[in-house]
Amino acid sequence: MVLLGSTGSIGVNTLEVAKKFNIKIEVLVAGKNIELLNQQILIHSPLFVVVAYKEDVLKVNHNNVLFGEDSILKAIEDSQSDLVVNALVGFLGLRPTLKAIECGKKVALANKESLVACGNFIDISKIQPIDSEHFGLWYLMQDRPISKMIITASGGAFRDWDINKLKNATLADTQKHPNWSMGQKITIDSATMVNKIFELLEARWLFGEGEYDAIIETKSLIHALIDFEDGSTTAHFANASMQLPIAFALDKNMDKNILGHVDLLKIGNLEFREIDKLRYPIWEIKEDLLKNPNRGVVINAANEVAIEKFINKEIGFMDISKTILKAYEMFRDEPKSVDDVFALDYEIREKLK
Question: Are residues 194 and 283 in the same domain?
Fold first, then answer.
């Protein structure tokens, strides 16, 4: 396989699964964590390595090291692997997704922004999502009429905070996720609920038109539910580990044990909550966005700009959602092509600087 984003949490888990099932790694692509990358090279012996920055090339313990976006695209194009695992963070993951599909490869996709910004122009038949929620929906689907597809949210770092204190939340506060440790951006997205808006959009592109919603399940043991037309509801329970969806992305016929089962007697109880628009203002546009999914490029670009400003202490935490909502009102044109997606993304970023 070609693995993009090898040193992040998804990448690390992907390599664990690859080792378990003896899958060879042809290309490793990583960012700044050269120390971990060198450990991965030692274990997995990739043929090629790509890093983000030129100054890091000489720090990598490998004979075939390239750098930058163009090198990522070339590595995908030149690779013999049929599978590309895209675990890059942000809009920069879109071109590699498009390149992999253009080259006829299957994409195990953890880069949410690809579908959020460009879902209408991506061949979904080439995509297998690496996401607990979409994996859960896929796992539950039967050949029966569906009423609604539901994914769950943890609620993020601030689900129990006094709403009046949110405006003073710091970057460090956003990283205190109640259930697990993730990368900086996705943990911020979890706190704003932007992450769940993204996942609903992804579900819309993956599974087609229909009714989609999300609820908070505080223990993150139920990842998806499906309401069927007959009145029954099924739920997908699994202990929180990305290795399960990753394993099925690598092999849809997976029949080996990946995780320990959820012990309901030990859990004792579960708690469900509605997603409150006061705590999560982004939820105001959920319905409109699902009706107009091509506008995902707007919320993605605005979110990335707002997060950068928040990290640089130029805006407060609640201003992240305000920035996205303002952009959503300002930019109403829908992209008609992939080129339009990149042009609109650039325009939004320039406007919101």
Answer: yes
